[in-house]
Amino acid sequence: MKRKGLMHGADYYPEQWLSRPDILKEDIRLMKLAHINTVTLGVFAWSALEPQEGVWDFTWLDQMMDTLYENHISVILATPSGARPAWLAKAYPEVLRVSEDRKRNLYGMRMNHCYTSPAYRRLVREIDERLAKRYGNHPALKAWHISNEYHGECHCPLCQNAFREFLREKYGTLEALNKAWWTGFWSKTFTDWEQIESPSSRGEMALQGLTLDWKRFVTKQTVDFMRREIETVRAYAPSVPVTTNMIGSFIEVDYPKMAPWLDVAALDCYPQWGGGPDYEIAMDAGFEYDVTRSLKKSPFWLLETTPSLTNWPAVGKPKGPGIHVAGCLQAIAHGSDSVQYFQWRKSRGGYEKFHGAVVGHYGHEHTRVFRETARLGEILENLGEIEGTKTISQTALLYDWNNRWAIEGAKGPRQDKFYEETIREHYRALRRYGVNVDVIDEEQSLEGYRLIAAPMLYLVKEELPQRLMQFVQAGGVLLLTYFSGITDENDLCFQGGFPGPLGELAGVWAEELDLLYPQERGGFCCTGESLPGEGRWSCRDYCEVIHAREADVEACYTSGWYAGMPALTRHRIGKGEVWYLAARAENDFLLLLYGRLLERAGAAYIPGGLPKGVTLCTRCGQKERYLFYTNWNGQPVTVEMPEGEEMLRTGEAKGEQGSMDPLETVILKQKLQ
Ligand code: GAL
């Protein structure tokens, strides 16, 4: 259905209610009341569609598609490969995943099939083909939802063979593989491809090259499986967009490798809000949205979030009043064109019967959750013109899956590396200046950015230094930090000193890395011309001992045997500059630093930053710009806003001009010149 506007909807499982036509009828009435315009069908419907091998039943889905269409509700139709029927596992045991300790799973749970299994691929193709033939031209169809949250790995003999094939293709010879994996260490040289096995806690855990290649293989195999599903549905419905629900920054699958095959990037996001406003949670959710949007640098879809609580944390606390509207509008602010929930109606039984839903076990609309959902639906209906508008970011954060895997897997130099925390600290500092932030990997385009932050760029892919050099020479500002330029793609340390191939950019060389104990703190102060000299700043965990070669020194250590040596440098190259931060500095310093870097980069930002606890995101259309402000504080706050038409104000508008209530969102619309 070519509906215009933002999507609002939920995962809908009518197959659980086929014996209750009264409930199915009531669902439509309630959907209309909740301003639902799109539902996702069929995510786990395999056994309802094919109750026995080769026995098909599409009657219920036919009826559902028609009824929804008649009621102006579009459908995102899922391929059901996320969960397989029991008959299938019994008839084809090879579809059952083998865990890393080489034990084959029994039938059960979901999203746990072998991606290599030819039987599973064939059976999935068959059901996908039938769905695509039957519904590919149905007027209700809005998009395909390919499978569900692809993830996990299988270590069965079929996967082992496919892994060896992948390695053969990558390396050509065992000699090349042995070299790349540095197998001379601990006598690990391979003399036959058959000797190579996937990593296991009962076997090889220490060969980082093997572990990295295994992770790359798992992504490749997952993407290959997904591509086959996409090809199948596309053959019958070439113009229907395809997507799959990713999980934001989830570390298992290298999403930038998945994204090119999708028409729209999409994610499931379940911020654990707890009872009240929480800026930190908002920042973490914002990061997930930015990761997903940056995959295609286009509007994305939020395909799952909860209208109330989740059933899987230690304590599944319901969202307090006002959080639903603010939290979901935040996704729109970051570039989503949809808010979809898991789930429409609570099931009576099964694993997720206590998970939040728009309609609870009471089954009516007279609840707080329903009212807040309906309110959001109404708001989204009025924001239709925002659909398709873009997020333009002048700043980017480099966050690469290979780098994450390599840092996480490296034995030493300390156990807690704090990479994920560090990325989010830098993200928060940037966001305080009201700028949009793209989160990109080492291979994505650097075009259009003025400032790129690349904290802890430990693993450096071959072409990156050259691309960064071009970026800087053309006027870009780059921030590098300690523990960067350490290894190549195979996790082999660069010879000739760190930061390896980033040295020319940084204009420094790193002699040593001092690691601090958890309670230990170091210090530094600004000594250069770029940052205010007063005040001592504290740092923790990492203090790299660097020498400025061509770079200017902007700050020096005040602690350790390296007191007086550079803690921050700036290297001018071409029209741009590269900053090198040698220590894990406290957050207030990051804030100060990014203010300066944004200024140096000539980026558009709010000097002095937003008030604490307030977020700002911007989307741009052809002629308009939309500014989304939200107050995540527990108290009202005064926010200075530019001129613009107030398109939405979710609070009571009680305060004086510019004052925002807790959890209030304001959208300003500005005409573009
Ligand atoms: C997602 C999953 C949904 C549902 C939800 C519960 O990961 O895709 O099917 O289980 O979690 O929070």
TrEMBL record:
Positions of substrate binding: R110, N148, W312
Pfam entry (one): Glyco_hydro_42C
Residue ranges crossing the lipid bilayer per the database entry: none
Keyword terms of this UniProt record: Glycosidase, Hydrolase, Metal-binding, Zinc
Annotated ranges, domain Beta-galactosidase trimerisation: 394-602
GO cellular component terms given for this protein: beta-galactosidase complex
Positions of the Beta-galactosidase C-terminal domain: 613-669
Superkingdom of origin: Bacteria
Reaction equation(s) it catalyzes: Hydrolysis of terminal non-reducing beta-D-galactose residues in beta-D-galactosides
The protein's name: Beta-galactosidase
